[in-house]
Amino acid sequence: MHGWWLRRKHFHAGFMKDITEQIRVSEETHHHGELVVAIEAAMPSHVKSSAERALEVFGRLRVWETPHNTGVLLYIALDRHKIEIIADKGLKSAEHEWKAVCSGLELRFSEDQYQEGLTEAVIGLEAILAQYCTQEAGENGPNFLPDAPVML
């Protein structure tokens, strides 16, 4: 129940529209990576860990299916207060960069600042993608994955 309540309270349609636009603009102008945000109110009871579930969601949402293998999944399990980032093999960033984003998001969530936390996390992930998935001036390839957060 708690996860459903958090999702309804903090992740309403207007805020999700803002996050979608933030992802769209960044992918269009700053890099050729693909960021997918998945927010799950309640993890399925048969799943043992959030890392296992994040891998499952990564596959089901086909985040791996980009030409340069530069897909990134930000998975949030609201009921278990877990955050996972799964990056495809084409991204050569250091593990500590992903962990820093997770830590910042966890801190904001613990302070009941869900919208601020998610906004900052998306900005941080887009910065990592811009660093490792640079695009040439004027290059604007196709968008392979949806920009809107996926509500599970």
From TrEMBL:
Pfam families attached to this UniProt entry: TPM_phosphatase
UniProt-listed InterPro entries: TPM_dom
Gene3D superfamilies attached to this UniProt entry: 3.10.310.50
Residue ranges of domain TPM in the record: 19-126
Full protein name: TPM domain-containing protein
Lineage: Bacteria, Pseudomonadati, Pseudomonadota, Betaproteobacteria, Burkholderiales
